């Protein structure tokens, strides 16, 4: 070994003797710090990658794709902002929570309601009940109900009514009818049919009893709402009871019953007002059957069947 090299080693040993070596704890802390620095760098890189993916996804749903860079040009690092504003149009901002509309999820426009009532909207009696007595008339479609007023009448588009006689299935065809109806159909503006049924319920509740007019023995009529369901979109059924009388108006014992049912189908209301025939009373089963036929005819007219 040369003299110069021996002098160099001696100088290095003297220098080492003057410095304190780190203890093991210090070495572990330094190693931990380096590990944390590496982990932090990895987490930052992962966050930048996730942000880039999320941004790309957002743009993919809300804007046109960005122009493709010409081939051969250098690719800018994801973390370096561009030196100049991009010439691509910025997608317009949309308030948070506002649904994005498109032709695929837009609702079709509402179909306009009917404006006139054809003859086919009126039901036909079953062959066993048909007396062949029918006439279209401009008649009152409801009893007075203590002179109740119906604001929904202002929403009427058109109304038609008729008188219709019927017989029971077991009655011979050459006998007089067993009963009759005033049958009406009314078209309302949107919302008017709902109001009409609500007002009818309220009117019946507010008029539990009313006096008849005319004659020496005016009748007392008792009104009552009946439970009803299964007809159209909604329905109202009520009865009117009074003491049975002969053709001269004299009491003969027993009761006479009238039934009135109003049924709503969309913006249309049909009413069957059973009026009897020469003192007969309404039969619930017959009125129910004819009500179902009336609803079927209206639903067919409106295209619901």
Fraction in beta strands: 15-25%
Total DSSP E strands: 8
Helical stretch count?
4
The profile of the biggest β sheet is: 8 strands, antiparallel
CATH C-level category of the largest domain: Alpha Beta
Spatial gap, N to C terminus: 114 Å
Q: Helicity level, as a percent range?
A: 25-40%
Topology:
Blueprint: H1 3-17, H2 24-62, E1 130-136, E2 156-166, E3 179-188, H3 192-205, E4 209-211, E5 220-226, E6 234-245, E7 251-265, E8 268-274, H4 284-301
Antiparallel strand pairs: 1-2, 2-3, 3-8, 4-5, 5-6, 6-7, 7-8
Task: For the structure shown, list the relevant keywords.
single chain, 305 residues, Protein Transport Mog1p, Chain A, 24% strand
Concise summary:
The protein is an alpha+beta fold and 305 residues long. It contains four helices and eight strands.
Explain how this protein is built.
- The chain is α+β, with helices and mostly antiparallel strands and 305 residues long.
- It is built from 4 helices and 8 strands, in the order H-H-E-E-E-H-E-E-E-E-E-H.
- The protein has helices spanning 3-17, 24-62, 192-205, 284-301, and strands spanning 130-136, 156-166, 179-188, 209-211, 220-226, 234-245, 251-265, 268-274.
- An 8-stranded antiparallel beta sheet has the order 1-2-3-8-7-6-5-4, sandwiched between helices.
- The N and C termini lie far apart (114 Å).
- Residues 18-104 have low confidence and may be disordered.
């Amino acid at each position: 070994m040369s003299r110069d090299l021996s002098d160099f080693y001696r100088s290095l040993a003297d220098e080492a003797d003057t410095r304190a070596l780190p203890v093991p704890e210090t070495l572990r802390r330094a190693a931990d710090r380096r590990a944390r620095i590496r982990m932090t760098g990895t987490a930052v890189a992962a966050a930048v990658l996730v942000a880039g993916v999320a941004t790309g996804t957002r743009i993919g749903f809300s804007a046109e794709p960005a122009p493709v860079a010409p081939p051969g040009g250098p690719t800018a690092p994801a973390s370096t902002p561009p030196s100049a504003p991009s010439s691509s149009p910025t997608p317009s901002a949309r308030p948070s929570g506002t649904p994005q509309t498109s032709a695929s999820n837009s609702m079709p426009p509402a179909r306009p309601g009917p404006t006139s009532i054809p003859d086919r909207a009126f039901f036909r009696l079953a062959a066993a009940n048909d007396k062949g007595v029918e006439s279209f008339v401009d008649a009152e479609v409801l009893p007075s109900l203590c002179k109740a007023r119906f604001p929904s009448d202002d929403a009427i588009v058109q109304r038609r009514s008729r008188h219709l006689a019927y017989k029971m299935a077991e009655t011979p065809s050459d006998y007089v009818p067993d009963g009759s109806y005033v049958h009406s159909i009314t078209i309302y503006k949107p919302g008017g049919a709902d109001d009409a049924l609500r007002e009818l319920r309220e009117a019946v509740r507010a008029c539990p009893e009313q006096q008849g007019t005319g004659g020496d023995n005016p009748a007392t009529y008792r009104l009552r709402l009946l439970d009803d369901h299964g007809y159209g979109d909604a329905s109202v059924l009520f009865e009117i009871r009074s003491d049975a009388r002969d053709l001269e108006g004299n009491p003969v014992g027993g009761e006479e019953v009238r039934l009135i049912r109003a049924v709503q189908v969309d913006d249309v209301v049909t009413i069957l007002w059973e009026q009897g025939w020469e003192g007969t009373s309404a039969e619930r089963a017959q009125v129910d059957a004819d009500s179902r036929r009336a609803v079927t005819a209206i639903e067919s007219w409106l295209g619901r069947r």
